[in-house]
Structures are given as C-alpha cells and as structure tokens.
Amino acid sequence: MRAISALILLFGLILPSVITAAAEKNLICFYDSASYLRPGFAKLLPADLELGLHFCSHLIYGYAGLKPHTFEVYSLNVDLDMFHYHEITLLKAKYPKLKVFLSVGGDHDLDEANPLKYIGLLEADRAAQQNFIDSSISLLKSNGFDGLDLAFQLPRNKPRKVHGAVGSYWKQFKKLFTGDFIVDPLADEHKTQFTDFSRNLRTALQRANLSLSLTVLPNVNSTWYFDVPKIKNNFDFINLLAFDFLTPERNPDEADYTAPIYPLVEQDRLPHYNIEFQVDYWLQNQCPPDKINLGIATYGRAWKMTSGSGFSGVPVVILTDGPAPAGSQSLTPGLLSWPEICAKMPNSVNADYRGENAPLRKVTDLEQRYGNYALRPADDNGEHGMWVSYDDPDFGAIKSSFVRTKGLGGVAIYDLSYDDFRGLCTGLRFPILRAVKHFL
Length: 440
Description:
This protein has 13 helices and 16 strands. It has helices at 2-22, 46-53, 78-89, 117-123, 126-143, 165-178, 187-207, 222-225, 228-231, 275-284, 338-344, 393-406, 431-439; strands at 26-32, 58-66, 73-75, 99-105, 147-151, 211-216, 237-240, 254-255, 292-297, 299-303, 317-318, 335-337, 361-363, 372-376, 386-390, 410-414. The strands form 3 sheets. An 8-stranded parallel β-barrel has the order 1-2-4-5-6-7-9-16, surrounded by 6 helices. Strands 12-10-15-14-13 form a 5-stranded antiparallel beta sheet. Mean pLDDT is 91; it is low at 1-22 and 165-179.
C-alpha cells in the first residue's frame, strides 16, 4: 500500500511537469499589411496568407499609428485598412483558434515632425491617455480584433562601432570628457509612466474582453523602459524582437552577425548584442518564461563590401560601405527577404553570372550559435561586393530549439511577407514558418 501511495505521489509530482512541457507553444505571426500593396511577387494576398495561418496561434496585424497631439490610435492607411481589417479578422471563422491583434507603432509609424510622440503619450495626463485607450478599444471592437499589441517607437540605443584595442583606449579616454551616450535622461521616469499606463490600459481592455501584448522593438533598451516585475502581469505575452543588433543603416562601416544566439567576446563586441542576453534579462527579472516569445526575422541584412573588406567574409567585416542595393521584392536598401537571399545562392540559373548578379557564397554556422552568412567579395574595380547575415529555415529551427530549452512561450515570426510565401526557392511555401512550427 505504501508503495502504491508513493507511486501516486511520484506521478503527482511528474505529471504537471509533463503537461507543462507538452503544452503547445505560441507561434506569433506578424503580418505587415503594406505587403498587400507591394508589386509583383512581393504582393502578399489574403489567399497566400491563409496557408500560413495553418501554423499560427496569433496573427499581429501591423500597423496602426499614434496621433501626436490627441494621442488617438488611427489607421496609417485608411484606403487599405477600411476594408482589409475586416477581410483579415473574418479569417477567424476558418481558423477558430486564431487570435488577431492590431499592433500600434512598429517600424511604420515614423513621424519625423514628432519623433518622441510615444514618450509624449507616457508623459501625458490621464485624460490624454484615455484618448489612446478609448480610440484603441473602438478600433478593435468595430473591426473584430481580439487584442492590442504595443510596439512603441521608444528611443533606441545609439549605434556602437566595434573597436580595436587602440579604439577602445581612445573611447575610454573620450568618456572622461563626453560621458556615456545618454539617449533618454528621463528614462527612470518614463519607466514608471509606462508601468502605470500599461496597467490602466490592461484594466480597460479586460473590461472590453480584449487582450494586450507587448513587442520590444530591436535596440529598444529594456532596462530603460520596462520594469519587468511590475509589468509582467499587464500583458498576455511579450515578443522580444532580438535581431537587427547591427544593420547597414546603423553600422555602415562594418558588418557582423545581426541576430546571434550567444555572445561573441572576440573583437571587443558588445555583450548585449545577442539573444541569450536579451532573454535572460527578462527571465532574471521575474518574467515567467512562458510569457516570452522570441522574435525571428524572415529577412537578412545586407552590406556593401569594398576592396578593403577582404575576401574571407569572416565577421567582423571591415570597411563596408553601408547598405547593399535593395532587392526587387523588399525594395529596401540593405534588406533582403528570404526568397531574395535564396535566389542569390549558387544554382543552375546563376552559375555563370558575373558582376552584380553573380551568386553569393554561403558560410554555414556549424556551431549553431551565431547564424549563417553569405558573401560576394568586391571585384577588381571595388564593385558588386555584398555581405549578408540572415536566418534560413535551418537556423529558424535551431532558434526554436533554443526556445524549447529555455522553456519560453514560443516564437514570433517577423514577418510573414518576407518568408518565401510563394515557394519560389524550393517549392515549399512559408519554409521558415514551417521549420519553426515543426521544432516547436
């Protein structure tokens, strides 16, 4: 009898752990509605989107904006959104487990005249903040959304260069006179204000039977704005977009891994430019791991290599010349979607191409710690060089394994429109999304 009791007790201890381990992970899928307006093969139509929804637990529709003086939430593209909101949210009838959120901010609500309007919202009085709350609830309810995602454009870390030994000494010497790079001298106040604002927003949304999530944009310093122990219960989940640590726009003179999992200590790299550091900060500050979703980019960052960048391509690649030319799909200098990157790998079509169309040489990260990259050294005239850091389906799977090892809530794919949703590369549609889902 004692043996049976002990066995029952043992199962009682083990079973909750087994259930937790077996719980289905989140797969948060960001959907950039601007992709509906892109030309040619880059145009992501709802019919193409539907295939991806088989794998998604949540769809985050981007983006809404913030009016700088009234602090109301509004559509950034009324001509599209007035019909598209309903077209997307009606897909829940086909996918009843899917939750659709509307995201505010992201990388679309760029207001040159009012670059600090999200800080202004935090500093505003309760009446002004109530405009945000009321307008967001109205927009969500009238269009069938399940929740709101805060992807606020808060001040970001200033770009930092990788220094050699001499550069490091000079930097330390210069600090005696210039101090540290202070981006937001009132960060402590803004952290407290964000805590209060998100709590009030959460309460109002709950009353309206709506959910709330937080997306931490790349290079937004969590230590400045997020009091993790106090805000962790204000959000259903938190998406950490742990990529774009270096980009051709922020770091034009040197190329390096844009989203390594683990820190690289060589060449005086910064210790926080990696996924492990970003995730551990939230975990060490009492955020439940199952609330954290790791952001994985479906695009790569591409630098222009020069004659001075060498031929090996081993990062850090020096003397780069800013962003490489835009791809025909992304139309953004220094950014290539996964199918654009895949098309540049050696294949039967481009094997004999030269110049700007010559294939890239892929270098696989056999340690599975930092990421893959591909390159084409500059030619004898110093032209047509390119270096790209990216995650492919294989490395998306590796990062999904990291999520499981850490016990995190899931993955946030950023975003569906840059995955190979047409199957142009191998015939398989949404290959990064599929790989992530399989390994979760």
